[in-house]
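Please check this protein record:
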Amino acid sequence: MLTEEAVLNALRKVQDPELHRDLVSLGMVKTITVEGGAVAVTVELTTPACPLKAQVEEETRAAIQALPGVTAVTVTLTASVRKPPPGRQPLPGVKHILAIGSGKGGVGKSTVTANLAVALAEAGAAVGLLDADIYGPSIPIMMGVHRQPEVVAKRMQPPVNHGVKLMSLGFLLPDHTAPVVWRGPMVAQAVKQMLMEVDWGEIDYLLVDLPPGTGDAALTLAQAIPLTGAVVVMTPQEVAVQIATKTLNMFRTLKVPILGIIENMSYLLCPHCGRPVELFGHGGGRKASQRLEVPFLGEIPLDLVLRQGADVGRPILIEAPTSPVADVFRQVAGNLAGRISVEALKE
């Protein structure tokens, strides 16, 4: 006779492909219903951006169909981002804070961060984006928001656009052309205020766009709150890889887990023949990830629409949602979300 216990035992043989543990021990099997030979199960993924959800669904269905007496299988996938272990949740309501850094300016870190935030929100996650680049805040332009945040009960309310909650010093400066001439302690205080004095609400992922290099903003962030991890953005050429490695090693020194490396400006698709043109060399990010033994999250190409959208506050997932580059960002965001799920399970 087909029973719920038999279905549960069958699902003990199905592993999450990223976490490498079975669905039952991970607590991902939420409901099982057996009516005659018809079985319905609900599996809760650890992130709505899971890049391998189709594989999980297929293997779950196959495991149940292999049981004697099964005539029909319905698999429903839901998702809930796991909280980090006790003592590692950074802010009330915020499950994970991710630092996005680079060794130097000009590698497209802010463009990558903005599009990753939109990709995670599109997948169904609650997402925030903090622009911690005090000297050159660019997120207001890239996300199309130019108004000051409201203040309620002495807490700033982050503006929302493209499904992402936003905060930037650029929202607070009366003159956007005036330089920010601040010493380290003022930078550190500004970063703390934008973290602690903002009503972020319930957030699955808070992405922090750091200034380039290894300065005060990165140190403040790493020392003030527990970070789930850091991502380093680099371009393919060797000189960029060497500089980005310093940023990666800084995070390691500060005991911040490295979630992975993203290679930006990897290639340009020729508009005439469609072949990739590697303007800045080939494979630097992947080679760096192998040499430094950290995950490689993906390659993002140069793209005219991506650049144009950044100038008018429309990330490519909004401006050209069906484009190949938008799909690349979805894949990279999924890879990143998977790495976060792995970190959340660590004791």
